[in-house]
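Re: that backbone. Tokens:
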């Protein structure tokens, strides 16, 4: 794998004209926020997600005729073939039920000559503080599965590349974005994620596995205090549809 490091998405997008954009599994719009400032130009961004409550949050954050938000699944994207100039999936590959179907659907709605972008955190080769985030994420996966939410553990780096390669995109390039690793003991970040852990217990207050999660959460909070918490790096894969 020939992987180039980037320090921000501006390096990736500054020469790219987005045109009509679809952001799959958009969540509250974190990647939409990135694209609207990093792309050289764009016309309209559509966010797609299966969670209607999250879409409401996104639509309140991104207002105006240049944004729209659609309830729908990555497994059956509700748009015709060759509809968008740029289709993206950021930190969502491990959320979709079948990543191969999702990416084929993304490719289907992409225009010929358009770009597909996958940005996904990976789970191998992590530092101690990055491993804290992985353990935090893995516990959230367990909780979501109890609550009936589609969520899976993250992939190793090679697995992400293998999934993307099946799309047979032209000129595929792979980048690594490390995010900010400068302050693993950042007190505000540790406090924020510790409070989120506490809020999870409220969600399962009457569940039979409450004691299990209480114990795991106590261990995680202690780990945060000892080794810190930083986000894992992301692989960013860019390719063009012929």
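Recovered sequence:
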């Amino acid at each position: 794998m020939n992987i180039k490091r980037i320090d921000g998405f501006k390096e990736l997008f500054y020469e790219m004209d987005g045109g009509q954009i679809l952001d799959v599994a958009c969540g509250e719009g974190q990647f939409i926020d990135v694209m609207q400032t990093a792309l050289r130009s764009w016309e309209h961004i559509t966010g797609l997600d299966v969670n209607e409550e999250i879409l409401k949050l996104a639509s309140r954050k991104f207002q105006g005729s240049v944004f729209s938000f659609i309830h729908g699944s990555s497994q059956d994207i509700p748009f015709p073939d060759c509809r968008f100039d740029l289709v993206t999936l950021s930190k969502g590959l491990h959320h979709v039920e079948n990543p191969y179907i999702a990416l084929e659907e993304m490719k289907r709605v992409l225009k010929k000559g358009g770009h597909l972008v996958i940005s996904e955190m990976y789970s191998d080769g992590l530092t101690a503080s990055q491993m804290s985030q992985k353990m935090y994420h893995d516990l959230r996966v367990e909780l979501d599965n109890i609550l009936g939410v589609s969520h899976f553990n993250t992939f190793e780096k090679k697995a992400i590349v293998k999934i993307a390669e099946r799309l047979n995109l032209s000129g595929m390039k792979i980048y690594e974005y490390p995010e900010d690793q400068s302050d693993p003991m950042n007190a505000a970040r540790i406090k924020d994620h510790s409070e989120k852990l506490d809020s999870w217990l409220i969600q399962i207050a009457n569940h039979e596995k409450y004691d299990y999660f209480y114990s795991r959460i106590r261990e995680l909070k202690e780990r945060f205090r000892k080794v810190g918490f930083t986000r894992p790096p992301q692989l960013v894969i860019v390719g063009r549809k012929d």
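The chain is about 40% helix and 20% strand. The longest strand covers residues 110-121.
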